[in-house]
Amino acid sequence: MDLGRFTESQRAGGASNADHAVQGTSNDAAVSRESAARLGYIADPFIRHFVKPAQRRAPLINRGTFCRFHGVQNTLCQFIQALGATTQASGQIVVLGAGFDTSFFILEKEGLSAGKYFEIDFAEITAKKAATIYRHPDLKSLLPSDTQVAMGGSELHSSRYSLLSGDLRQFQSHVVPKLIERGFDPNEPTLFLSECVLIYLDPEHSDHIIDWITLSVPNAAILTYEQIRPDDRFGQMMIDNLRARQLELRGLHAYPTLESTSQRFLSRGWHSSTAVDLAAYHDRCIDESERKRLAKLEFLDEWEEFTLLAQHYAFTFAYSRDTDLFQMLCPLK
Ligand code: SAH
């Protein structure tokens, strides 16, 4: 089957320019990740398959990518380990706007897997991802043995891993039915992950997703990683730079601060919600030995610039119920 054909036919079907621009950010994320992986910041042996041509990012960007990767891997690993330690449940992970994120493969390689793992993105992106996975034996061999290609090459279905196509702006009408059809169980403890995704949606759409989770998944946790602080000079520059590429951070003004991103969940009755910016995460969560290791990889003398940049990105980690499982998770401390 020609897994590449779907992409072109979809494009002919006409997503908007703004949608194409947002889809392109999956490449930006992958290029940064590949740069950090190649230089030894992070251990991701798979990301190179998704990046052509590779580009070396500046040291401060590599340092930021390291922190982002660290926070996400920390959360995924803590969730999977806590599942093993506290419950009979197998658990689920749902990655919203997964792009070319390789976490599923990294975890599989480490022998760390939740019961089910779902990734969602536009069909243009999932088709490219599926085709790349099938082209590279080191990725393909980590797929569960019952994996099937579906939807003209834009989806992968299996008992444990599903790569699903869909528009998050039609979450309840289109994405949720696909999740359910592929075995998503709202009663399982579920970790949702959203790295630089919800911020591109109108707040009414992203709020709708969070409202659905609040009402439908009793044991939910979420990690988001997004831009904050639009109102200072750096924030304004960040917005202008993205706007020049037709990228609009639609959610930024609705949730502009650490407090507001955290309140977003607390105001809906979630039990716990913590937000830290990347600068604080770097200072608090990266231990001394790791920082020494990073310092040897590349010289970073732009500390002021790094801090400024890192203050404009934030992790928010929230969970809905006070259970033994969720109490074990403290990825931002
Ligand atoms: N989370 C990934 C990718 C980030 S780029 C990572 O960190 O590497 C943002 C991703 O969100 C892109 O792949 C884009 O296609 C996806 N996305 C944005 N809006 C979306 C929508 N409405 N529906 C589905 N996916 C969307």
UniProtKB/TrEMBL annotation:
InterPro entries for the chain: LCMT1, Ppm1/Ppm2/Tcmp, SAM-dependent_MTases_sf
Region span, Disordered: 1-27
Enzyme Commission no: 2.1.1.233
Catalytic activity: [phosphatase 2A protein]-C-terminal L-leucine + S-adenosyl-L-methionine = [phosphatase 2A protein]-C-terminal L-leucine methyl ester + S-adenosyl-L-homocysteine
Residues binding S-adenosyl-L-methionine: 68, 97, 167-168, 195
GO biological-process terms attached to the record: methylation; regulation of signal transduction
Keyword S-adenosyl-L-methionine attached: yes
Keywords tagged on the record: Methyltransferase, S-adenosyl-L-methionine, Transferase
Top-level class of the enzyme under EC nomenclature: transferase
Keyword Phosphoprotein applies: no
GO MF annotation terms: protein C-terminal leucine carboxyl O-methyltransferase activity
Family: Belongs to the methyltransferase superfamily. LCMT family.
Function: Methylates the carboxyl group of the C-terminal leucine residue of protein phosphatase 2A catalytic subunits to form alpha-leucine ester residues.
The protein's name in its UniProt record: Leucine carboxyl methyltransferase 1
UniProt organism field: Coemansia spiralis
Name of the gene this protein is made from: PPM1
